[in-house]
Write a structure and sequence with these properties.
It is built from 16 helices and 13 strands. It has helices spanning 9-17, 23-41, 49-65, 107-114, 157-164, 181-187, 221-231, 249-253, 276-291, 307-322, 343-354, 357-370, 375-397, 422-426, 433-438, 467-485, and strands at 44-47, 76-80, 118-123, 170-174, 190-193, 214-218, 262-266, 295-299, 402-406, 441-449, 455-462, 495-496, 499-500. The protein starts with 8 loop residues before the first helix and ends with a strand.
Length: 502
């Protein structure tokens, strides 16, 4: 194993800038790690070794000419498999799109290429991002590098597992109800959901258009900030993109100072259903903030109680609309077209075999919620709750600068433990869903380990376009964790039992 794969992206960028390493050397080290470890964790669905090495060689040539594209030029990255990528399949973890190669790049992917990052491949995910464990992927579940019998979170468990297992220093994910933050919490990685509209959704296969938000997955706060600055900003190809400049995220990540910051502890995120170790680590993190000079107050957001129910009406309804295009005519798989079946039969056969159980469950719920006579009763009512949740945030942010909570009520659960209980699975996103409903910025940062040695995450929530506040708190927390426990959570690869995954 090369020592390079355990370093942060910012450290690797310094080594590249100083001429101590080459991008080709760095890329090859990560490809070797993928070859050795990916069969155990199933983080990657597709690896483009030739393309990655060619991009790395181009980066080295640019650097030799003094034409560096960005601070992260030459750094490897992995992409969640719902981002469109030319030359590589985009399957969304579904048989419906197996083998499909898009004719264009998502805006975020295009910006990565322009910045000179080296794309290693595509990571595993719950089918069309429907899940909280990456167990609904048609290509098998990903596994948590901290314990191979546990989930790495979802829907972006492939990206979080890849970063945690040192298969890549950086990854892209997408967050509809917690699919970046929740995997971050259970794998000890940093996961950021930017403000809705802060990073372009163009070219990201839609699950729920009013909730989806791409964002970074990394091992350090600074790495997330640097990656966020590259992929963020206005995009005319996305009608929901915010025409406003990003704040100075990398500067905020390096401030490591919370003096004068007013931090709100959300009263509703705790109690029954929250594991004692999660609450204990959260209480410690809140005390760190207070000891660091932040003013801590308790805030109440009473309508958060209804956020989960509202989300599971709004999301399936939008999903039902978005996935209607996969009908055996316009996109994806086509089965049953033997000359005897009519178009309705071909569509039914294709969708029956192309979608998995969870996708079908949510499609049925969403179609019903939008059906004649029920639209106002279900979808309309859920949107009213969404407005109430946003109002809770507005009132809370009138009292404080950021809100904090556990990222997840529990640590990583075992594979198969919740597959027969959809409600238990859905509750994994209990703390993360309100931010998607309101569209504000939020992030998860590692804050320690449970008694069983599993990571616990702190969620930090900020007002829209105040993403820098998340990074400011995250940088402080990361520095505190590193000073107390060493570099394990901040930089080094986790372990499985007493043996490193490699």
């Amino acid at each position: 194993m090369s020592e390079l794969i355990t370093k942060s992206a910012s450290e690797l960028a310094d080594l590249l800038a100083d001429g101590q390493i080459k991008s080709v050397e760095l890329t090859r080290a990560h490809l070797e790690q993928i070859q050795a470890v990916n069969p155990k964790v199933n983080a990657f669905l597709h690896v483009d070794a030739d393309g990655a090495l060619a991009a790395a060689a181009d980066s080295d040539a640019r650097r030799a000419r003094g034409e560096v594209g960005s601070a992260l030029d030459g750094i490897p990255i992995a992409i969640k498999d719902n981002f469109c990528t030319t030359g590589m399949p985009t399957t969304c973890g579904s048989r419906m799109l197996e083998g499909w190669v898009p004719p264009y790049d998502a805006t975020a992917v295009q910006r990565l290429k322009e910045a000179g990052l080296v794309i290693l491949g595509k990571t595993n995910m719950d089918e069309f991002a429907m899940g909280s464990s990456t167990e609904t992927s048609a290509f098998g579940p990903s596994r948590n590098p901290w314990d191979l019998e546990r989930v790495p979170g979802g829907s972006g468990g492939g990206s979080s597992a890849a970063v945690a297992a040192c298969l890549t220093p950086l990854a892209l994910g997408s967050d509809t109800g917690g699919s970046i933050r929740q995997p971050g919490a259970v794998t000890g990685t940093v996961g950021v959901k930017p403000t809705y509209g802060g990073v372009s959704r163009y070219g990201v296969v839609a699950m729920a258009s009013s909730l989806d938000q791409p964002g970074p997955v990394t091992r350090t706060v600074l790495d997330s900030a640097l990656l966020h600055e590259i992929i963020g900003g206005h995009d005319p190809m996305d009608s929901t993109s915010i025409a406003q400049s990003l704040p100075a995220l990398a500067d905020a990540a390096q401030r490591c100072d919370v003096r004068g910051l007013k931090v709100g502890v959300v009263k509703e995120f705790g109690g029954e259903g929250y594991e004692p170790d999660v609450e204990a680590r959260f209480a410690e993190a809140v005390q760190w903030l207070q000891d660091g000079g932040a003013e801590v107050v308790e805030v109440s957001c009473p309508h958060f109680e209804y956020a989960l129910a509202a989300y599971y009406l709004i999301m399936p309804a939008e999903l039902s609309s978005n996935l209607a295009r996969f009908d055996a005519v316009r996109y994806g798989l086509r089965l049953g077209d033997d000359g005897r079946n009519g178009m309705e039969a071909v569509t039914a056969i294709t969708r029956g075999q192309g979608f998995g159980k969870e996708a079908k469950r949510r499609l049925i719920i969403g179609t019903y919620a939008l059906s004649s006579g029920y639209h106002d009763q279900f979808y309309g009512s859920a949107q009213k709750v969404r407005t109430l949740v946003a109002g809770d945030f507005d009132r809370a942010f009138a009292q404080c600068d950021v809100l904090v909570s556990p990222t997840t009520p529990t640590v990583a659960f075992k594979l198969g433990e919740r597959t027969g209980d959809p409600m238990a699975m859905y509750k994994a996103d209990l703390c993360t869903i309100p931010s998607n409903l309101a569209g504000n910025a939020s992030a998860s940062f590692p804050i320690g380990l449970s008694a069983a040695g599993l990571p616990v995450g702190l969620q930090v929530i900020a007002p829209p376009m105040a993403d820098d506040r998340c990074y400011q708190v995250g940088g402080f927390i990361e520095a505190k964790v590193e000073s107390d426990t060493g570099p394990l959570l901040a930089k080094a690869a986790p372990i499985v039992g007493s043996k490193a995954v490699w």
